[in-house]
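Just wondering, does anyone understand these C-alpha coordinates?
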Amino acid sequence: MPNAAARRCLAAALLSACLFSAPSRADLHFHWQNDFDTATQTMVRDWLSESFAALEAHVGALPLPVHVHIHRKAPAAEPVPWAQTRRGNPQGVDFYIDPRFSLQAFRNDWTAAHEFSHLLLPYLGSRHAWFAEGFASFMQYQVMQTKGVLSAAEAERRYRNHIARAQRNYRRHNISFIEAAPQLRAEGRYPTMYWGGAVYFRRVDAALRDHGRSLQGVLSEYLQCCRRNHDELEPLIDTLDTLAGCPVFRQEYVRMRHTQGFPKDVPR
Protein backbone atom coordinates (compact mmCIF):
# COMPACT_ATOMS: atom_id res chain seq x y z
CA MET A 1 0.00 0.00 0.00
CA PRO A 2 1.40 3.49 -0.84
CA ASN A 3 2.62 5.58 2.07
CA ALA A 4 0.67 8.61 3.27
CA ALA A 5 2.67 11.13 1.23
CA ALA A 6 2.25 9.12 -1.95
CA ARG A 7 -1.49 8.79 -1.32
CA ARG A 8 -1.83 12.55 -0.83
CA CYS A 9 0.06 13.22 -4.06
CA LEU A 10 -2.14 10.75 -5.88
CA ALA A 11 -5.30 12.34 -4.50
CA ALA A 12 -4.13 15.83 -5.46
CA ALA A 13 -3.27 14.68 -8.99
CA LEU A 14 -6.66 13.03 -9.39
CA LEU A 15 -8.39 16.12 -8.08
CA SER A 16 -6.62 18.51 -10.46
CA ALA A 17 -7.23 16.21 -13.42
CA CYS A 18 -10.94 15.63 -12.82
CA LEU A 19 -11.78 19.26 -12.07
CA PHE A 20 -11.75 19.84 -15.83
CA SER A 21 -14.46 17.27 -16.57
CA ALA A 22 -18.00 18.33 -15.66
CA PRO A 23 -20.39 15.47 -14.86
CA SER A 24 -23.67 15.02 -16.67
CA ARG A 25 -26.88 14.86 -14.65
CA ALA A 26 -28.04 11.43 -13.58
CA ASP A 27 -31.16 9.88 -15.06
CA LEU A 28 -33.48 7.60 -13.11
CA HIS A 29 -34.51 4.51 -15.08
CA PHE A 30 -37.30 2.19 -13.91
CA HIS A 31 -37.40 -1.59 -14.46
CA TRP A 32 -40.49 -3.53 -13.33
CA GLN A 33 -39.52 -7.04 -12.30
CA ASN A 34 -43.11 -8.07 -11.56
CA ASP A 35 -46.50 -7.01 -12.88
CA PHE A 36 -47.69 -3.79 -11.24
CA ASP A 37 -50.83 -1.91 -12.21
CA THR A 38 -50.68 1.64 -13.50
CA ALA A 39 -51.64 3.21 -10.17
CA THR A 40 -48.87 1.33 -8.34
CA GLN A 41 -46.29 2.26 -10.98
CA THR A 42 -47.28 5.92 -10.67
CA MET A 43 -47.01 5.75 -6.87
CA VAL A 44 -43.59 4.10 -6.99
CA ARG A 45 -42.32 6.58 -9.59
CA ASP A 46 -43.49 9.49 -7.45
CA TRP A 47 -41.90 8.05 -4.30
CA LEU A 48 -38.52 7.22 -5.81
CA SER A 49 -38.34 10.36 -7.95
CA GLU A 50 -39.00 12.51 -4.87
CA SER A 51 -36.39 10.63 -2.84
CA PHE A 52 -33.81 10.89 -5.62
CA ALA A 53 -34.55 14.59 -6.14
CA ALA A 54 -34.09 15.19 -2.39
CA LEU A 55 -30.68 13.49 -2.51
CA GLU A 56 -29.58 15.66 -5.43
CA ALA A 57 -31.01 18.77 -3.79
CA HIS A 58 -28.93 17.96 -0.73
CA VAL A 59 -25.55 17.31 -2.37
CA GLY A 60 -25.85 17.81 -6.13
CA ALA A 61 -26.33 15.74 -9.27
CA LEU A 62 -24.92 12.24 -9.52
CA PRO A 63 -22.68 11.93 -12.60
CA LEU A 64 -24.09 8.54 -13.60
CA PRO A 65 -27.42 7.02 -14.64
CA VAL A 66 -29.27 5.16 -11.89
CA HIS A 67 -31.40 2.10 -12.67
CA VAL A 68 -34.05 1.06 -10.16
CA HIS A 69 -35.49 -2.47 -10.28
CA ILE A 70 -38.85 -2.89 -8.58
CA HIS A 71 -39.81 -6.29 -7.15
CA ARG A 72 -43.01 -7.34 -5.39
CA LYS A 73 -42.61 -8.71 -1.85
CA ALA A 74 -45.96 -9.01 -0.15
CA PRO A 75 -47.36 -9.39 2.38
CA ALA A 76 -44.81 -7.47 4.43
CA ALA A 77 -44.80 -5.55 7.69
CA GLU A 78 -43.37 -2.41 6.06
CA PRO A 79 -43.43 -0.72 2.63
CA VAL A 80 -39.88 -1.73 1.68
CA PRO A 81 -38.84 -4.92 3.47
CA TRP A 82 -35.63 -5.27 1.44
CA ALA A 83 -33.40 -3.26 -0.88
CA GLN A 84 -29.82 -3.43 -2.13
CA THR A 85 -27.57 -1.48 -4.46
CA ARG A 86 -26.29 -2.73 -7.79
CA ARG A 87 -22.63 -1.89 -8.28
CA GLY A 88 -22.10 -3.05 -11.83
CA ASN A 89 -22.43 -0.98 -14.97
CA PRO A 90 -24.98 0.56 -14.86
CA GLN A 91 -25.40 1.13 -11.16
CA GLY A 92 -28.71 1.18 -9.38
CA VAL A 93 -30.92 -0.24 -6.63
CA ASP A 94 -33.23 -3.22 -6.25
CA PHE A 95 -36.32 -2.32 -4.22
CA TYR A 96 -38.59 -5.06 -2.88
CA ILE A 97 -41.93 -3.48 -2.02
CA ASP A 98 -45.37 -4.24 -0.67
CA PRO A 99 -47.65 -2.07 -2.87
CA ARG A 100 -50.52 -2.31 -0.40
CA PHE A 101 -48.96 0.55 1.59
CA SER A 102 -49.90 4.16 0.81
CA LEU A 103 -47.73 6.72 -0.97
CA GLN A 104 -47.29 8.56 2.33
CA ALA A 105 -46.02 5.39 3.99
CA PHE A 106 -43.41 5.04 1.25
CA ARG A 107 -42.45 8.71 1.57
CA ASN A 108 -41.93 8.30 5.32
CA ASP A 109 -39.78 5.19 4.84
CA TRP A 110 -35.99 5.64 5.10
CA THR A 111 -34.92 2.92 2.64
CA ALA A 112 -34.80 4.93 -0.60
CA ALA A 113 -32.77 7.72 1.05
CA HIS A 114 -30.35 5.10 2.43
CA GLU A 115 -29.87 3.15 -0.79
CA PHE A 116 -29.56 6.17 -3.07
CA SER A 117 -26.98 7.63 -0.66
CA HIS A 118 -24.79 4.57 -1.23
CA LEU A 119 -24.36 5.67 -4.85
CA LEU A 120 -22.69 8.92 -3.83
CA LEU A 121 -19.52 6.95 -3.08
CA PRO A 122 -17.81 4.18 -5.08
CA TYR A 123 -18.06 0.56 -4.02
CA LEU A 124 -15.36 -0.08 -1.41
CA GLY A 125 -15.71 -3.84 -0.96
CA SER A 126 -17.16 -5.88 1.88
CA ARG A 127 -14.05 -5.31 4.03
CA HIS A 128 -15.06 -1.66 4.42
CA ALA A 129 -18.80 -2.26 4.79
CA TRP A 130 -18.76 -0.33 8.09
CA PHE A 131 -17.71 2.81 6.15
CA ALA A 132 -20.26 2.41 3.34
CA GLU A 133 -23.16 1.48 5.60
CA GLY A 134 -22.24 4.07 8.19
CA PHE A 135 -22.24 6.68 5.45
CA ALA A 136 -25.65 5.65 4.10
CA SER A 137 -27.09 5.44 7.62
CA PHE A 138 -25.87 8.96 8.40
CA MET A 139 -27.10 10.31 5.07
CA GLN A 140 -30.58 8.80 5.17
CA TYR A 141 -31.85 11.24 7.77
CA GLN A 142 -30.07 14.17 6.13
CA VAL A 143 -31.88 13.41 2.88
CA MET A 144 -35.21 12.91 4.65
CA GLN A 145 -34.81 16.37 6.20
CA THR A 146 -34.19 17.85 2.77
CA LYS A 147 -37.23 15.97 1.52
CA GLY A 148 -39.31 17.60 4.27
CA VAL A 149 -40.57 14.44 5.96
CA LEU A 150 -38.28 14.70 8.99
CA SER A 151 -37.38 17.63 11.24
CA ALA A 152 -33.84 18.24 12.43
CA ALA A 153 -34.92 17.48 16.00
CA GLU A 154 -36.52 14.19 15.01
CA ALA A 155 -33.48 13.23 12.94
CA GLU A 156 -31.21 13.87 15.91
CA ARG A 157 -33.48 11.85 18.18
CA ARG A 158 -33.30 8.92 15.77
CA TYR A 159 -29.51 9.15 15.50
CA ARG A 160 -29.15 9.15 19.28
CA ASN A 161 -31.52 6.21 19.74
CA HIS A 162 -29.91 4.05 17.06
CA ILE A 163 -26.38 4.80 18.27
CA ALA A 164 -27.25 4.21 21.93
CA ARG A 165 -28.80 0.85 21.05
CA ALA A 166 -25.79 -0.12 18.95
CA GLN A 167 -23.45 0.81 21.79
CA ARG A 168 -25.42 -1.29 24.27
CA ASN A 169 -25.20 -4.29 21.93
CA TYR A 170 -21.46 -3.90 21.31
CA ARG A 171 -19.30 -6.49 23.07
CA ARG A 172 -15.74 -6.14 21.69
CA HIS A 173 -14.24 -3.50 23.92
CA ASN A 174 -10.64 -4.76 23.71
CA ILE A 175 -10.21 -4.00 19.98
CA SER A 176 -11.07 -1.06 17.75
CA PHE A 177 -14.43 -0.76 16.04
CA ILE A 178 -12.79 -1.06 12.61
CA GLU A 179 -11.18 -4.35 13.68
CA ALA A 180 -14.49 -5.60 15.07
CA ALA A 181 -16.62 -4.53 12.09
CA PRO A 182 -15.97 -7.61 9.88
CA GLN A 183 -16.90 -9.86 12.81
CA LEU A 184 -20.09 -7.90 13.41
CA ARG A 185 -20.99 -8.30 9.75
CA ALA A 186 -20.22 -12.03 9.76
CA GLU A 187 -22.45 -12.49 12.80
CA GLY A 188 -25.31 -10.55 11.21
CA ARG A 189 -25.09 -7.75 13.78
CA TYR A 190 -25.76 -5.22 11.06
CA PRO A 191 -27.38 -2.40 13.08
CA THR A 192 -24.38 -2.29 15.44
CA MET A 193 -22.00 -2.09 12.47
CA TYR A 194 -24.14 0.46 10.61
CA TRP A 195 -24.58 2.89 13.47
CA GLY A 196 -21.03 2.56 14.73
CA GLY A 197 -19.99 3.55 11.21
CA ALA A 198 -22.46 6.44 11.27
CA VAL A 199 -20.66 7.86 14.32
CA TYR A 200 -17.58 8.32 12.12
CA PHE A 201 -19.51 10.56 9.73
CA ARG A 202 -21.18 12.48 12.55
CA ARG A 203 -17.73 13.17 13.97
CA VAL A 204 -16.39 14.14 10.54
CA ASP A 205 -19.31 16.51 9.95
CA ALA A 206 -18.86 18.13 13.37
CA ALA A 207 -15.10 18.55 12.83
CA LEU A 208 -15.64 20.02 9.36
CA ARG A 209 -18.08 22.55 10.82
CA ASP A 210 -15.38 23.63 13.25
CA HIS A 211 -13.35 24.51 10.13
CA GLY A 212 -16.23 26.36 8.48
CA ARG A 213 -17.07 23.42 6.19
CA SER A 214 -19.59 20.56 6.24
CA LEU A 215 -19.82 17.02 5.00
CA GLN A 216 -22.64 18.16 2.71
CA GLY A 217 -20.37 20.75 1.10
CA VAL A 218 -17.45 18.36 0.63
CA LEU A 219 -19.73 15.77 -0.94
CA SER A 220 -21.09 18.38 -3.36
CA GLU A 221 -17.56 19.15 -4.52
CA TYR A 222 -16.70 15.46 -4.70
CA LEU A 223 -19.63 14.73 -7.03
CA GLN A 224 -18.65 17.61 -9.30
CA CYS A 225 -15.08 16.50 -9.74
CA CYS A 226 -14.16 13.09 -8.52
CA ARG A 227 -16.89 10.44 -8.31
CA ARG A 228 -15.38 7.34 -9.87
CA ASN A 229 -15.83 3.60 -9.49
CA HIS A 230 -12.88 2.25 -7.56
CA ASP A 231 -12.62 0.06 -4.50
CA GLU A 232 -9.91 1.68 -2.40
CA LEU A 233 -10.81 3.40 0.84
CA GLU A 234 -7.48 5.12 1.49
CA PRO A 235 -7.41 7.17 -1.77
CA LEU A 236 -11.04 8.14 -1.21
CA ILE A 237 -10.26 9.47 2.26
CA ASP A 238 -7.31 11.45 0.89
CA THR A 239 -9.44 12.91 -1.92
CA LEU A 240 -12.11 14.00 0.55
CA ASP A 241 -9.47 15.61 2.77
CA THR A 242 -8.02 17.43 -0.24
CA LEU A 243 -11.44 18.82 -1.06
CA ALA A 244 -12.08 19.73 2.59
CA GLY A 245 -8.76 21.56 2.85
CA CYS A 246 -8.05 19.87 6.19
CA PRO A 247 -7.24 16.26 7.19
CA VAL A 248 -10.51 15.66 9.06
CA PHE A 249 -11.48 12.40 7.31
CA ARG A 250 -8.01 10.94 7.93
CA GLN A 251 -7.83 12.11 11.54
CA GLU A 252 -11.19 10.59 12.45
CA TYR A 253 -10.33 7.39 10.58
CA VAL A 254 -7.06 7.03 12.50
CA ARG A 255 -8.85 7.81 15.76
CA MET A 256 -11.43 5.09 15.10
CA ARG A 257 -8.78 2.60 13.99
CA HIS A 258 -6.68 3.03 17.13
CA THR A 259 -9.35 3.54 19.81
CA GLN A 260 -10.70 0.44 21.52
CA GLY A 261 -14.42 -0.09 21.94
CA PHE A 262 -17.45 1.51 20.37
CA PRO A 263 -16.77 4.94 18.84
CA LYS A 264 -17.77 7.95 20.88
CA ASP A 265 -20.58 9.99 19.38
CA VAL A 266 -20.42 13.77 19.01
CA PRO A 267 -21.34 15.76 22.17
CA ARG A 268 -24.93 16.84 22.64
DSSP finds eleven helices and four strands in the chain.
